[in-house]
Structures are given as structure tokens and as C-alpha cells.
Amino acid sequence: TLARKVFNHEKIKRHFPGLAWVCVSQQFERKCVWQTILRQLRPECDVSKMMVDELLEKIARVLETQKALIVIDDIWREGDWDLIKPVFLLNKGCKVLLTSRNERVALHADEQCNPIKPECLTFEESWVLFQRMAFPIKDTAECKIDQVGMKEIGMEMLKHCG
Prior knowledge:
One of its GO terms (biological process) is defense response. It comes from Brassica napus (Rape). This is Disease resistance-like protein. By secondary structure, the protein is an alpha/beta fold. It has helices at 2-8, 10-15, 30-41, 52-65, 78-84, 103-109, 123-134, 150-161, and strands at 18-25, 68-75, 94-98. Strand 2 (68-75), helix 5 and strand 3 (94-98) form a beta-alpha-beta unit. It is elongated and about 60 Å long. The relative contact order is 0.11.
């Protein structure tokens, strides 16, 4: 959420002519990540037939001539960053924002970084938020669960998600 707010902020959009957002998750291919980045920075490029070396070279050329903010979202493992990072190494106008559930990923990418770790909601706060999202009532901030068993199912979902 914080990364998305930064990415969509007007000052950021004015400062960085190039913006790219790519989700990595647990299963990914480096080529697909680089294709997504290049497709967002240069929509006119046909990346579908480019090989990894060609993608690396093309992204490097784009980043040499254009300031860019690239968000690498939901990266799980340190080794995953190692696979992706060669495209960013020589580019001074490029800023990379990583999101991860694993603090070690951030520290592996940059030992000097100061990771932002938002606090989790309490169970009670989670329940209030869950009710607002799952059972909204139009024209009111209140929510009401009126079906039998729905509260129990909702509570189980919250316990499962932590």
C-alpha cells in the first residue's frame, strides 16, 4: 500500500518520466520480469520475441537516457533479487523500490537501507476492517452481518491470515 501510494503520487510522476511496477511473487522468470519493465517503460517495444541479453541491453539503454522509478513488488528470496538486479547496476537515474515480507531481502539488496515495517493490525482492528470490506452497507459507515454463520467464517479467515 505504501509503495503504491509513492508510485502514484503526482510529485513522483513529475520527477520520473519512466515508471514501472512488476510483481515478482514466489514463482517468476527473470525474462518475464524484464519484459514487464521494458513494456511499461517503452510500450512501443515488442518484447515478446526478445531474448534475455537483448532485454538487458534495451532496458540499460532506456535507463541511461531516462529517469525511472521501478517497483519490484513482493520479492520473496534474496536470490531472486540477484537474478533481477543486473539490469539496474549501472544506471544512476534509476531508483528501485522493493517490497517484501522478508526483511533479509531488503538488507541483501542494500545493506544501508532502512526497511519500513508497518505494524500488523490487532485482531479487533482486523475484524472491523474485514466487516467494512466484506459486508458494506450503503450510505453508512456501519456494517452488519445478518446471516447465521458468517461471523464464524469471517473470524476463521482472520485467524488463518494472521
